[in-house]
Amino acid sequence: MALSGVEIFKLLPKTNCKKCGHPTCLAFAMKLAQRQATLDSCPDVSEEAKKILGEASAPPVRPITFGSGDKAVKMGEETVLFRHDKKFVNPCAFAVEIKDTLPETEMAAIAERVMQSEIDRVGQKLRIDAIVLSNASGDAGKLEAAAKVIASKAAGVPVIISTKDAGAAEAAAKSFTGKRPIIYGVDSSNAEAMAAVAKANKAIVGIAADGLDELAALTEKVKSLGVEDMVIDSGARKAKEIIEHNTLIRRAAIKKNFKPLGYPIVNFMQREDGLHEALVAAIGVAKYASIIVLSSIEKWKNLALFTLRQNIYTDPQVPMQVEQKVYNIGEPKAESPLFITTNFSLTYFIVSGEIENSKVASRLAVMDCEGLSVLTAWAAGKFTASKIAQFITESGVEKEIAQKELIIPGYVAILSGSIEDKLPGWKITVGPREANAIPAFLKTRT
């Protein structure tokens, strides 16, 4: 049973040192009780208290790292049902299935598409995260051979080995030693053997159940066999079942603290029709899937799913921001124009995109305004003449330009005189109000 905030407080150091990021130990205890903080934030907690509080402070959905290195995928660690309560923590992973019945050249081609799937969207790197190697042949030798192909052609990409044959799983797992693969296909008939393979290879177990009752029983059984890290599949395949099962699993874990269902969810979304598959996959993105398995990864499908995932897993309480600095658009020279804007991601990408469209190499000074747009930042007192002058002075951009001219957004034209007073020797030019007018504005200057 979960401890109350007061019960947790009794086990804390009570020093109010603020090292955990909270003003008092009681405030930290309340956050622990609400599962909105983790115990490792307190550096002074005793070992005895750690043992007692470990259960109380652990997230309802077990955190798991799938794969290794810079392509590793973090899953679980979720604490809420709705993102407006607190952001969803770890974005779901997209995985593409590769069957061991395919010719080696086709396996290699799919692996290559996975490696080339990364795109940059609003400053974030988005990609297909994993490969599901499916033992469609039922032959352990073919699965092992396919594993070697994937290991060589998609090095570093996390892999799910999908088979119900423990011997085949063990043979394939050798190609991913130290890579934290998932061995999927554990059911009531093979749990002992598959758990042994997972432990021997330091792999994650993938539970393949038929319904929620069997799922809960299987996770308890596998846990009793000494395996803690699992991903779970209730067997839901139809859209209605996926919504129902995923919601019940998440609610049981978070609201009821039901540990047998407190694991990341894997959903298999493969469909013959690509559009149908994308629509069903979107349900998984919106409704609690941690891994979504696809049959194909066309670029149009990737873009749609990447965009949805990025939006769902963006913190709604914190604007998306880019780093404060002076960005080069193209290859600017000393006489190239210098623009300024705020660090709201959407503002930055729209403005920089229009400057690129103009084909006029420029510099874009992006000022930290806590992720606010130009007008909002000005109204909030974060995009003011004095702050703009301080940023431009401290940026050192003056050393790179021939003429000290700063182009400000048209919406804050009122600041031009004040900025000139704060930046002696500078010329302040009022630019367009809308970013799409930048190309025409730049052409009039040439």
What can you tell me about this protein's structure?
- The chain is an alpha/beta fold.
- It has three domains: 53 residues, Electron transport complex subunit B, putative Fe-S cluster (3-methyladenine DNA Glycosylase II, Chain A, domain 3), CATH 1.10.15.40; 249 residues, Alpha-Beta Barrel (TIM Barrel); 119 residues, Rossmann fold.
- The chain contains 16 helices and 17 strands.
- It has an eight-stranded parallel sheet with strand order 10-9-8-7-6-3-12-11. Strands 13-15-14 form a three-stranded mixed sheet, with helices on both faces. The protein has a two-stranded antiparallel sheet with strand order 1-2.
- Helix 10 links the parallel strand 11 and strand 12.
- Helix 4 runs parallel beside helix 5.
- The longest helix is centred in the middle third of the chain and has 17 residues.
- The model has no long low-confidence stretch (mean pLDDT 93).
